[in-house]
Amino acid sequence: MQKMIQVISAAATLCIAGLVGVVTSAHADTTVSSTEELVRSQPAMQYVFSERAMLVMYQLGVEEDKRFNLQTDCKSKYQVRPLGAVVLKPVTIPDGGRNPKSGAWLTRYQLERCGDAKTYNAVFVADAEGGNPKPTPFYPGNTRGGPVLVQDAMMVAVSTAIAKSGQSGCRKVEAFDMRAKQPPHDVVEGGATFRGVWKETWTFRVCGKMVDVDMIFTPDAVGSGTSFRTESVKTTQGMAQ
User: Fold this and answer.
1) Which letter, b or e, does each residue of 41-51 get, where b requires 16 or more Cβ atoms within 10 Å of its Cβ?
2) Could you read off the pLDDT of 75-120 as tens digits, one per residue?
3) How far apart are CA 141 and CA 233, in angstroms?
4) What angle do CA 123, 126, 128 make, to 5 degrees?
5) Which long-range contacts (CB under 8 A, 24 or more apart) does 68-76 make?
6) Alpha-carbon distance 184 to 168, whole Å?
7) Alpha carbon of residue 63 to chain centroid
8) Left (φ > 0), alpha (ψ -120 to 50) or beta: where does 73 sit?
9) Which of 98, 100, 80, 117 is nearest to 26 (CA)?
10) Beta bridge partners of 211
11) Which has the higher per-residue pLDDT, 210 or 220?
């Protein structure tokens, strides 16, 4: 089943110039197997958005800004605002907030600077030896889809972006942003009702040219997967389980 990003409210904005630690000692190991369990677990949330984790997000965000050539002249302090998290593989947080030895999760955060903000995502994978989790930047933006669904839909979206750009020979295509176009709603086609359909706009930079691709996501009736296609294509292009 495809996973959704669940947005959570942040208690405060964490400024990189003066981060305040929030990790407190737990009384027992905490295991979270789903995003819902993560959001309800104080120890897990304290770990996922701890001082160290926020510092890593800040560093990843700054590198992404450099890659996109954003805010190159900004001299103000950067701020990191946590937005949400999703469990990719069950995570166990040891007593005392130490690093997990198994599991993976994605965090979403905003990097604010000079009156502007951009939403970034990062995937963290636990180290089997208990070291710091390995962070990897994920595609930026506010997609509702989880990493598996986004990754599966990416090839269709990139192909469409290249075609729309008119630069068939371009080999440098970057996903720049993902944002909602329509919230989940019912769609009736051919006498059948499809529930929870939503639309997003994915923006790509195709050899320097910005191109928008509208994506349509349709959950199946039994909750086992979600089909996806570009809005200009009438046939289903794929299915994420």
Assistant:
1) bebbbbbbbbe
2) 998 999 999 999 999 999 888 778 999 999 999 999 999 999 999 9
3) 23
4) 150
5) 68/174, 68/176, 68/205, 70/118, 71/113, 71/114, 71/116, 74/113, 74/114, 75/114, 76/113, 76/114
6) 33
7) 16
8) alpha
9) 98
10) 204
11) 210
What's 76's DSSP letter? S
**Residue 153 token pair:** 């839909």
Greatest Cα-to-Cα distance within the chain, rounded to the nearest angstrom: 59
Hey, what amino acid is at 238? G
Helix (H) or strand (E) holding 216: strand 209-219
* Phi-psi region at 200: left, alpha or beta (left = phi > 0; alpha = psi -120 to 50): beta
57's enclosing H/E stretch is: helix 51-68
User: What pLDDT does residue 153 have?
Assistant: 97
User: Please, are residues 8 and 39 in contact by the beta-carbon 8 Å criterion?
Assistant: yes
Distances 96 to 6, 25, 37, 38, 44 between C-alpha atoms, Å:
26, 4, 19, 17, 11
Report pTM: 0.83
Whether the CB-CB separation of 96 and 155 falls below 8 Å is answered with no
Q: Give the residue carrying structure tokens 């598996």.
A: 148
